[in-house]
UniProtKB/TrEMBL annotation:
<protein>
    <recommendedName>
        <fullName>Queuosine 5'-phosphate N-glycosylase/hydrolase</fullName>
        <ecNumber>3.2.2.-</ecNumber>
    </recommendedName>
</protein>
<dbReference type="GO" id="GO:0016787">
    <property type="term" value="F:hydrolase activity"/>
</dbReference>
<comment type="similarity">
    <text>Belongs to the QNG1 protein family.</text>
</comment>
<dbReference type="InterPro" id="IPR019438">
    <property type="entry name" value="Q_salvage"/>
</dbReference>
<comment type="function">
    <text>Catalyzes the hydrolysis of queuosine 5'-phosphate, releasing the nucleobase queuine (q). Is required for salvage of queuine from exogenous queuosine (Q) that is imported and then converted to queuosine 5'-phosphate intracellularly.</text>
</comment>
<keyword id="KW-0378">Hydrolase</keyword>
<dbReference type="Pfam" id="PF10343">
    <property type="entry name" value="Q_salvage"/>
</dbReference>
Length: 306
């Protein structure tokens, strides 16, 4: 994911609303260098897993819909993961490509057992249709064929996803330059690797190429830990729960600087210990830290990308 790393670094070198604190990076790397957790993908039992192709289909659907929960205070990722899991357990054909193209908003709500319209519900339905259509058109309706086509390469799998499924093309323009972020495409790769423990469908020889997944939680965690610094104006926007429009300089800087900061933390840990830490592992640590802090103040952006 060199394009993600390179363009994130480009933003970080020109950012005015979000900056990296070099001493904060070193202090944090020192703090966690000996305690990075290994990825335990399904530690809460929230995901569907049958060790076969239906799991791959589930993960693609899950990550097509894995975005923007914050407008509904009671909705979170677990509702999505568990709801889709139970739908598949009740009906193994629920995610057939032909059926994905026909779901409506109310049907998706019913599947997730959610009593009111979902945030960006029309977009979620559109993306379900897109996944079903492209799977049927290019991969005989099966996400496993998408994975087989990547030849066990995480980089190639991200390229396949973003070329075939427009809804996964998470990029922006910052000061005239295209910036690649690819949060959900990379999460699908990481979920695949984690679910299958790096074997079978999850055997990806270059998993170390995957960056962290720039969302709402991790930037806020890094800011709290002193790794990222916000400008007074950005801090005021976030603290007052005002929405930041997708594609603005503030929003791109929050996400790109988070990606670059995690790369810098990885490099620091490597210098200190000689160990190569995966971004997937660091992301898990940071995300879990943030989820454990319900008072964490994060930015708010309406987006289909995260």
């Amino acid at each position: 994911m060199e394009a993600v790393k390179a363009t994130a670094a480009w933003v970080a070198s020109r950012s005015s609303h979000v900056t990296l604190d070099s001493s904060g990076i070193e202090n944090f790397a020192e703090r966690i260098k000996d305690s990075i957790p290994k990825v335990e993908w399904n530690f809460e039992g929230t995901h569907y897993f049958d060790d076969g192709p239906l799991t791959v289909q589930y993960l693609l659907v899950l990550d097509a819909l894995n975005f923007c929960f914050w407008p509904d205070d009671e909705l979170n990722y677990d509702h999505l993961a568990v709801g889709l899991k139970e739908a598949l357990q009740n009906d193994s054909s629920a995610f057939d490509a032909s059926r994905l193209q026909k779901y409506t908003g109310p049907e998706l709500r019913k599947m997730l057992k959610w009593p009111r319209p979902l945030p960006l519900e029309d977009e979620r339905v559109r993306l379900l249709h897109e996944v079903g259509f492209e799977l049927e058109k290019s991969f005989d309706g099966r996400a496993e064929n998408l994975v087989k086509a990547c030849d066990k390469s995480a980089v190639k799998l991200v390229e396949l996803i973003t070329s075939h499924f427009p809804g996964f093309r998470d990029h922006s323009v910052y000061k005239g330059h295209q910036i690649f972020l690819y949060k959900r495409a990379q999460i699908f790769v990481a979920d695949l690797w984690g679910a299958f423990k790096g074997q079978g469908y999850g055997e990806l020889k270059d998993i170390e190429s995957v960056t962290m997944f720039a969302d709402y939680i991790v930037p806020a965690v890094l800011q709290q830990l002193g790794v990222l610094r916000y400008s007074p104006s950005l801090s005021d926007i976030i603290d007052s729960n005002r929405e930041i429009t997708s594609g603005t300089e503030e929003e791109v800087e929050l996400r790109a600087c988070t990606i670059h900061a995690v790369e810098e933390i990885k490099d620091s840990i490597h210098r200190k210990t000689g160990n190569q830490v995966l971004s997937v592992e660091l992301d898990l640590w940071l995300w879990a830290y943030g989820i454990a802090c319900p008072s964490l103040q994060h930015h708010r952006t309406l987006s289909i990308y995260y």
